[in-house]
Amino acid sequence: MFRTTLLALSTALLLRMSVQAQTVPTPKDHFGFNIGDDYQLATFTQTEAYFKKLAASPRTKLVSIGKTEEGRDQFMMIVTSPENHKKLARYQEISTKMARAEGITEQQARAMSEEGKAVVWIDGGLHATETVGTHQLIETAYQLVSRTDPETMRILDNVVILLTHANPDGQEIVSNWYMRNPAPEKRSLDNLPRLYEKYAGHDNNRDFYIMNLKESQNIGRQLFVDWIPQIMYNHHQRGPAGSVLAGPPYRDPFNYVFDPLMVTGIDALGAAMYNRLNAENKPGFTRLGGSVFSTWYNGGLRTTTHFHNMIGLLTEIIGGPTPENVPLIPARLIPNGNTPNPVTPQRWKFRQSIDYSVSLNYAVLDYAARQRDQLLYNIYKMGKNSIDRGSDSYWTLSPKRVETINELYQNDLKKAQAAATAPASATLASTSATSGSATASLATAGRSTTAVSSDQASAPRGEGVPVKYFTAVLKDSTLRDPRGYIIPSSQTDWPTAVKFVNALIKTGIQVQEATADFSVAGRTYPAGSYVVKLDQAFRPHILDMFEPQDHPNDFQYPGGPPVRPYDAAGWTLAYQMNVQFDRLLTGFDGPFKKLPYGELQSPTAKVSGSGAGYVLNSQVNNSYMAVNDLIKAGVEVFRLPAGSGSVAPGSFYVPASAKAKSILDASGMTVTSMAKRPTNVKKVTPLRIGLWDTYGGSMPSGWVRWLMEQYHYPMQLVYAQDIDAGNLKSKYDVIVFVTRAIPAVGNGNAPPRGEGDTGGFREPKPEDTPAEYRSSMGRITAEKSVPQLKAFMEAGGQVVTIGSSTNLAYHLGLPVRNALVEMGPTGQERPLSNEKYFIPGSILRVALDSTQQATWGMPTMTDVYFDSSPVFKVAPEAIAKGIVKPLMWFPTDKPLRSGWAWGQAYLRDGVTAFMAPVGAGKLYAFGPEITFRAQAQGTFKLLFNQLYGLGE
Fold first, then answer.
1. Chain CA centroid to CA 85, Å
2. Are 943 and 800 in contact (CB under 8 A)?
3. Spatial separation of the C-alpha atoms in residues 913 and 407, rounded to whole Å
4. Is the peptide bond before 870 cis (omega within 30 degrees of 0)?
């Protein structure tokens, strides 16, 4: 009887699974081709329709997580067993509770680990030209919905899978571009005419600690607030030449704030992934030093999850719809620890990349199914570790502190040697360097000027450095990690501080708000101030947003060239945004209320008093947006060049009116009244703004376009053809050139970089380009473009250059020269070698002349984002005669604030921004990236000030 019943149940189950599989359309049924067929790509419109068909399965739930920048729905398909779908809310609750680890006992954590299901995120398509990403997502969804094999059923029973489309707009753009040619063999992804994300293109994967873009916000809400998966898998392309893909684990350095469980979790998943490929005879997986990818940076879709205790995975695979070749790279043929199973040269098809990707997805999902309880417990454990570290004294290890230990030890050795060789009568009593000098050593030493690896022993062979040197540094109470931060609501640019707080909230950080005035450590703070404590699960991310990054001195070998970070070396967001905050080294409390997770904040506008008019502080970014709204509404606005009393120079004066007050009431700013109209004001006039862009789209230009839209600046894109046509002053008053627009002197025909800015961009022939894009073709040249720009300035126009586009100063023959050079053996100047000077993306401190119109609203010292940026020497007589007016410079030999600055002493006294009259107009040259990825909000005013005219 029992066997008969069991057989009947088994038959019914198989029949149900068979019927379900038959009701799911195959990709070929829907698209007309198999996913991975040569010369075939699916558009987002087709993909969305297919996912809606898959949503009919009881294994799926299709949700829109928000709108994209171009207004499309961004979808996430939740895949798990029908039984799990009935308890989906409970499994989501367990996932978020375990990640936050708040008020959970060990026993409760163990119980929820047993009850819950592993949650795994798999995305695709973020970089839309990397077409494997979206197409593996389609194929994986189909297989998870249709397959009935034991492995798939085990995965569905134990895992909740979040299949997420990362860039719907990009898929539509790229697939339509590829498929436009009716002849399959002539189809190509080359020469895409525009950015595949409306503003950022490839930089959409650098937005995830601030989340300016709508797609980032949609994704971030799911990752950091609503679901908090234990594993996230971010698909990309392309692997190193001679390999099929690069994947986990990644090369050093990893960020020092990480919990080691996260790092070893990546190791474990990496092993599962390449073991599966090896078992399936799929060679070519490289890892560790076999690729450039690391876990140092924050801000990428994968990397930001690392700071939230998630096992963030990245693979970069070859392949695309057009068949290609795996090239012969002899050095890649020998098996080693980086590449245990090399691939041989061969023809490579799109379908192979899809098959590899599905295998990798299944490897991750199978691991999650088998280790679901451990994954849930481990993310709890990492969160609990963070809470414990943030609740007590804790010291994060970093290269600077290890160097300080070595320096203290070496100093004592030198003293001992000197004492041993000195006459006894001359020997003086000395105090050990360990007695309180560690803080001073850290404060004055900066970074070592010799390329010594942090793990290089300073003690004799077989011996360690005495423990007292460790204690001197890593038990020094003044050097311990903070217990929390206070962001005072009394700071001048409060709206920008609130934007910073919202960046934290969007990444799942617990923020508290003061409900009344309070005092901590002898300072009083007003109600409305924000408090961010470190006793929470995502402590690594908090530290990373407030504290400086301490990148190691990373060289290929002693005395050799540096190893370039995969992205930035330093990015501290509080520094970039010029947010004022206090670090508290001891525990504190007050009248604080915890804000609900994910609840964004808005600054409250305060228009106080009555009188002749209102004053908008030039130090507040939102003032410039309000000015633009006022001008658009027909309200007169004036500037106060010298300020007035406590009013900063360059602040705005607005005559009182009902219309003005209604606009200011919505500004989110504190606006003060003036009893009477001030004297010596100048009327603000709007300028006709041109913003350079190029065929294929410039990411820095796209970010500035986004920025101008946010701050309500009307502008028009300007292309090389427009500039070469001349007569610019009849169309524009100011033209902005972002980095990589103006070529170097002697390289006038160098092409601008295209989408992704990853290499030289080969522009197509006009006849091969759709008519709507031909006007954007061409490039800035010394022969045609520079004379027209000079004529524009001579006629009264203004040109703003940023980053490498400050090359224009050299084209114009201004009396400035490169400060970062040395004399070569032939007596000619040459750029400093990387062995002597190397500063990848980092935060540096500069001094400013804040009395100049160009720098109104800026402090006398500020932080700038510096990425191998231009630095100038200006002839003293040029400054004396007013031919060049320095705006920013490096006053010290240690300007590094966050990141890595090898040879930073070369920067001292170098000018990094200036203004130069050219005829009746002006050239503004800003070496640092003052609008960097729309994150460097502390320096936005250096652009904004140049976008207004001043009348009488």
1. 35
2. yes
3. 36
4. no
For residue 121, list its beta bridge partners.
162, 232
Work out the average pLDDT over 113-138: 98
Give the list of residues 6+ apart from residue 106 with CB closer than 8 angstroms, or none. none
Residue 63 to residue 620: CA distance in whole angstroms? 39
What separation in angstroms does the CA of 466 have from each of 177, 401, 409, 642? 65, 15, 8, 59
- What is the structure's pLDDT at 252? 94
pLDDT at 658 over 80: yes
pLDDT of residue 608: 80
Locate 246 and state its tokens. Answer: 């690069």
pLDDT at 446 over 60: no
DSSP H/E element including 917: strand 911-918
Contact 949, 798 (CB under 8 A): no
Q: Residue 533's beta-bridge partner residues?
A: 484
Mean pLDDT of 705-715: 98
The pTM of the full predicted model, rounded to 2 decimals, is: 0.94
Lookup: tokens for 202: 């490839």
Reply yes or no: is the peptide bond before residue 238 cis, omega within 30 of 0.
yes
Q: For residue 447, is pLDDT > 70?
A: no
pLDDT of residue 605: 86
Residue with tokens 């979206």: 134
More confident residue, 461 or 368: 368
Angle at which helices 438-445 and 399-421 cross, to 10°? 110
Q: What is the DSSP letter of 820?
A: S
Q: Sign of dihedral through CA atoms 57, 61, 66, 69?
A: negative
What average pLDDT is seen over the chain? 92
| CA dist., res. 46 & res. 518, Å (int) | 57
Mean pLDDT of 440-460: 46
How many angstroms separate the CA atoms of 453 and 437, rounded? 23
The per-residue pLDDT for 947 is 98
| CA gyration radius, the chain | 30
pLDDT at residue 461 is higher than 70:
no
Region of residue 228 (phi > 0: left; psi between -120 and 50: alpha; otherwise: beta): left
Angstrom distances, CA of residue 306 to CA of 37, 145, 161, 420: 35, 29, 19, 51
- pLDDT at position 440 is 54
Count CB atoms within 10 A of the CB of residue 883: 16
Closest CA to 317 of 140, 127, 174: 127
Question: What 8-state DSSP symbol labels residue 756?
Answer: G
Q: How many CB atoms lie within 10 A of CB 858?
A: 25
Please give the Cα distance from 719 to 704 (Å, whole number): 15
3-state secondary structure of 146: helix
Q: Within the chain, how many helices (H) and strands (E) appear?
A: 28, 39
Q: Is the dihedral of CA 693, 698, 700, 703 positive or negative?
A: positive
| Helix intervals (H) in 245-371 | 260-279, 301-306, 350-370
Beta-strand runs (E) in 436-483: none
Task: Please give the span between the terminal C-alpha atoms of the chain, in angstroms, as a whole number.
Answer: 101
pLDDT at 429 over 90: no
- H/E stretch holding 665 reads helix 658-665
Residues 6 or more apart whose CB falls under 8 angstroms from that of 568 comprise: 297, 299, 840, 841, 842, 867, 899
By residue count, the chain amounts to 952
d(CA 440, CA 664): 48
Enumerate the β-bridge partners of residue 692: 718
655 pLDDT band, cuts 50/70/90, is very high
Alpha helices in 180-297 (DSSP H): 214-221, 260-279
